[in-house]
Structures are given as C-alpha cells and as structure tokens.
Amino acid sequence: MKRAHRRSHLLIWAVLGPAMLGLLAFAISFRPDAPTNETLPDLLIEEPR
Amino acid sequence: MSHDYKAVQWTPFKKRFDLWMLAGIAVYLVGFIAVSFASQPPGESIHPVQALIRATGTLAFLMLTFILCIGPLARFTDRFKPFLYNRRHIGVTTFLIALIHAALVIMWYHGFSDTNPLVSIFISNPRYESLSGFPFEVLGFVALIIMFLMAATSHDFWNANLGPGVWKALHMSVYLAFAALVIHVALGALQFNKSPIYVGLLAASALTVVSLHLISGLAGLRAPDRAGPDGWLEVAAVTDMEDARAKIIRPETGEAIAVFREGDKVSAVSNVCRHQGGPLGEGKIVDGCITCPWHGFQYRMEDGQSPPPFTEKIATYETRIIDGVIYVNPEPNAPGTPQSPSLIGATA
User: Fold this and answer.
1) Chain B touched by A35 (CB under 8 Å)
2) Enclosing H/E stretch for B176
3) Which residue of A has its CA nearest to B68?
4) How far is A33 from chain B (nearest CA, A)?
5) What is the pLDDT of residues B261-277, one digit of tens each?
6) Could you give the CA distance from residue B157 to residue B179 in angstroms, rounded to a whole number?
C-alpha cells in the first residue's frame, strides 16, 4: 500500500472509529423503555386460536 | 490484468472458495430462520418475510465485518491470505445479500402505501433531529449505495480507467458504509430487541474492526529504516530470509521496498503493486514470479515486469550481500529495468 494511503487509512480510522463507537454507546445506553421510532417494524402477533 | 477484461476472473481455487462461501451462506440463512421460528414466545409468531429480512440483514453485516477484518489480519498471519485473495468475491456477494435485505424491507414496510417506496424511506419518519427516533433506514440506504458503487466498480476495467488512486479512494468509502451500518443497527433493530447477545455482537464487531485497523495502521507507521554512510539500507542476514518470501524495507523517502529471496538469489522491487497498490512484500514467489497477495498480479524478479502478455512494470533496486548480510540501494531503477540478483552462495 502506498505511503499516502497508509496515512489516510490510519487517519480515517482514528476519526471514524471513536465517533462510531461513541454513537453506538450513546444509542445503546439511552434506549427508551418502549421504542419511539416510527419506522421500527412491529412484531406480528397472532391471537391464540 | 490489463491486457484484457473478463467479467469474473475464475480460477479453480476461486471456484472452490465461492462454492464453500455459498454453502456457508445457505447454512446461515436456513439456520437463522429455523432458530427464529423455534425461539418465538408462545402466542407470538414471526412472518417468514420478517425472518428473512433479519437473516439477510445480520448476514450482510457479519460478512462486511469479516471483510474489513481480512486486510489487517492478513498482515499478522498468512492464514488470512486466501481470504484476502478472494475478498472481491466476498464483497460483491455481501452487496447482493444486503440488496435482498433492502428489497424485502422496502416491499414489506413501504410497499403498501400510495407513496413511492423509495421516497417513503426518507419521509415516513421525519425525526431527523432526534437520536433515538432517527430514521435509521436512511443510514442503511446510504450504506447500500456505497456498497453498490463498490460492487459495480469491483472490476479491473474500472480500476484501469479510474486509476488505482481514485479507485482505492472510492473503495475506502466502505469504512463510512460500515459506520453507517453500525448506527443503522443500533438505532433500528436494537431499539426494540434488547437481547444482550445482539448488543454484544454489534459492539464486538465494531470494536474488533476499529482496533484491528488502528493497530495495523500504527504498525505501518514504524520509523523508516536508516541508511548507512554509503546510503544503502541493511535488510537482514541471509539466514533470516525465508525462501520465496520478502522483507519490507522503508526508506526515509519514497515507497517501501520488497526484498525477496528465491533459492540462492536475492532481488529487490517496489513494494507497491501497479494494480491497486497492494503490498508485494507480503506476497510470495509463485512460478518464479513475485505474486501480489491482493489479487495475484505477478512480476518477474529480475526486471520487475509482468510476464507476457501483461505489461505492468515496477521499479527494481540494486542489492548486495556482505558477510552474509543483505543490503539494498534505496535509489530505484526505472520501472521494468533489468537488475541482476545478488547470489548468496557467491558471497556468503
């Protein structure tokens, strides 16, 4: 890999990695008790026969 | 290589690899769906389409995670070199599985309204200002577009016409796609599925990919090898050189140099493959040619030229052996310049 690519590769991960892991930790830590996202798929619940 | 283009460059090894990969995919999908049905609580059931959406979504994510681990792992152990060699096929397959996942989601959750399903993805949930309520599907869509661009250009035709630099930059956007997918899953499926297994798998995947790339990147930043008073760089003792393998030397300026030993001959060439900048020094000599570990591009040791009918050329370097120690001159010859190898028996 070219020297310039190695550096840009490392720089990308040095910025992207912590940002991604931080957002992930935040999203998991502050999950509401009941989902609030309107596009979340609902479970298909069947009435017992 | 550049003398002609084929849609898929099959070799017997690649065919066997792809068959094993497809078998593994089938086993995963069937197993996931079977477990999904078997693990439903009493009174609840899951529709087969929903089970397939989850199976394809998790499989695409796991495959992308694996793809991103291959590069750094192949630097630490040769066991991952076969996966590196077949990474292009795994990548295109991952895109196709992600496409199935997206198509099923669009049909199942957005296909029954008057709104265009593709528009519906962006407007059905307008809470762009919220974190926990963010329209996570948009992130998946962004990742899918990036993966499409990568799959569509995963071919030597595009590599040759875009140029290795632009091509590589385009394909490095896969890192952005992976980050988008991690957040897509965290803000989507994991908001209602609170199983610690899923949370643990997602966190472990993200941590593994980030850690491996940072460790690999930092290892590549090691200090350049210092030249002696005459400007030549010490490579290694002859006895420390594995046959058909190389040592990589990093001069203070210019690109790294791969110094190969084959039998009693020592030759040095540029470490940068002309195809996509692959690290030639991490490859080996196959059929008398230096073979790139990324896609199998080959160069002759004696002049850095690809064997006919191919036309790629890389720089060669002068080597010498003194008291059983190999040295290389960091001044490159013009690409394709013949350079006599140093003979171990003659000087050691």
Assistant:
1) yes
2) helix B174-187
3) A13
4) 9
5) 999 999 999 999 988 78
6) 28
One-letter amino acid for residue B65 of the chain: T
Give the whole-angstrom CA distance, residue B94 versus residue B325. 47
Can you tell me the distance from the alpha carbon of B2 to that of B319, in angstroms, rounded to the nearest whole number? 29
| Residue appearing with tokens 């003194």 | B322
What count of other Cβ atoms lies within 10 Å of the Cβ of residue B89?
A: 18
pLDDT, mean of residues B18-43: 93
The confidence band for A45, taking pLDDT boundaries of 50, 70 and 90, is low
Of B182, B218, B255, which is closest to A20 when you measure between CB atoms?
B182
Best probe of the B interface among A36, A40, A46, by most B CBs < 10 A, is A40
From CA B85, how far away is CA B37, in angstroms rounded? 37
Q: Which amino acid is at B247?
A: K
- Domain residues of chain B, as ranges? 12-219, 233-347
- Mutation target vs A (from B39, B65, B132, B255; most A CBs, 10 A cutoff): B132
Q: Are B211 and B187 in contact (CB under 8 A)?
A: no
Instruction: Name residue B35's amino acid.
Output: V
Is residue A15 less than 8 Å (CB to CB) from chain B? no
pLDDT computed for residue B248 by the predictor: 92
Token pair 């068959």 is found at: B19
Q: How far is B323 from chain A (nearest CA, A)?
A: 32
Q: Which residue has the tokens 């989902």?
A: A35
Q: Report pLDDT digits (tens) over B211-226.
A: 999 998 888 777 778 7
In this complex, do A1 and B279 lie within 8 Å of one another by their Cβ atoms?
yes
Nearest to A6 among B53, B109, B217 (CB): B217
**DSSP string covering B242-263, please?**
PTT-EEEE--SSS--EEEEEET
Which of the four CATH numbers 3.40.980.10, 2.60.120.10, 1.10.357.10, 2.102.10.10 does domain B233-347 have?
2.102.10.10
The amino acid at B84: L
Residues across chain A: 49
Q: What CA–CA distance (Å, rounded) separates B58 from B140?
A: 12
Q: Are B252 and A41 in contact (CB under 8 A)?
A: no
Q: A48 CA to chain B: closest CA distance, Å? A: 6
